[in-house]
Amino acid sequence: MPWIKVDDHYDEHRKFMECGPLGHALWLSGMAYCNRNLTDGFIPWSAARTLLSWEFLEPPDDDGRRLRVAISVTSGMSGGDVDAEYVISLLTACGLWDEVSGGYVVHDYAEYQPTKEQVLAERAAKAAAGKAGGQASARARAKAPATARGQAKLNPVPVPVPDAFGSNEPHASDARSDAFDVVEVVEGLTGRPFGFTLGSRVFDTLAADVKDFGPDRVLTEYRAVKDGAPGPVDAAGVVFGGHKRLFPIPDGPRSKPVAVPKGMVQSIADIREALDAR
Question: Which of 55, 168, 207, 239 has a CA 20 to 30 Å removed from the CA of 219?
Fold first, then answer.
């Protein structure tokens, strides 16, 4: 999404002081139109007259009725309602808009705002990066089952073995699907492949938490870990950090020291003497 770049001192510029608050409003709406439609600052004649309405409804009164209000300007004893033609004339007179064939152009637009060419190039670069990341994730997921099989051959275990999904329980397949969905989100949070296979401590922790709390709650905690990290964080950091948030250690009262009855405490010398006697 393109963003409008507006200097926080723009209102102190001579042109904005000349055009007044109505000019401010139409100029800002025109900037949004140009950025949204990638027109490089051009505003068609018809669009310029529909960017803003110079009428509005007041908040409802006690009876629920809303009055229609028209903005007007007065000078001395004369005045009239405001329309688009009037405000456009303010912008062209002070040089914020330049009138051209078929409409208007925001003055010096390309000097401060991204052009259509720049926006499209940035979108294409992001799309290419996302595609590359998706392909890397697919390769990692395709490799994961083979790696898990290899580990199973090297480290055989008794059968049956309960897994993190509770394969003998109802809806185990749903839990497995949710876990893999969460893995994809973790890859998006960290910007790299997950890298841990079935049977690993990281994956089993993730799967168990998803089974116990559901994917939405788990992802809420994972995002909190990512947002609170001072720097980049990998999948293990996200998973274990989220697990700690799901199972916080309570700050309970400390236990009081136990008083030992007199006569139950032996000195070192007594202990040594008893050992020597054996």
Answer: 168
What stretch of H or E contains 44? strand 42-44
Cβ partners under 8 Å of residue 165, min gap 6:
172, 175, 176, 179, 207, 211
Interior angle at CA 5, CA 8 and CA 124, nearest 5? 160
- Expressed in percent and rounded to 5, the helix, strand and coil fractions of the chain are 55, 10, 35
Q: Where are the domains of the chain?
A: 10-114, 118-246
In terms of phi and psi (left: phi > 0; alpha: psi -120 to 50; beta: otherwise), the region of 171 is left
Rounded CA separation 92/103 (Å): 11
Tokens of 178: 């949710």
Q: At what angle do helices 235-246 and 201-213 cross, to 10 degrees?
A: 40
Residue 231's identity, in one-letter code, is: G
- In the numeric block, which tokens belong to residue 54? 């110079």
DSSP structural state of residue 161: -
Q: What is the pTM of this model?
A: 0.47
Give tens-digit pLDDT for 207-256. 999 888 988 999 999 999 999 988 888 989 999 999 999 988 765 555 55
* Sign of the four-CA dihedral 26, 27, 28, 33: positive
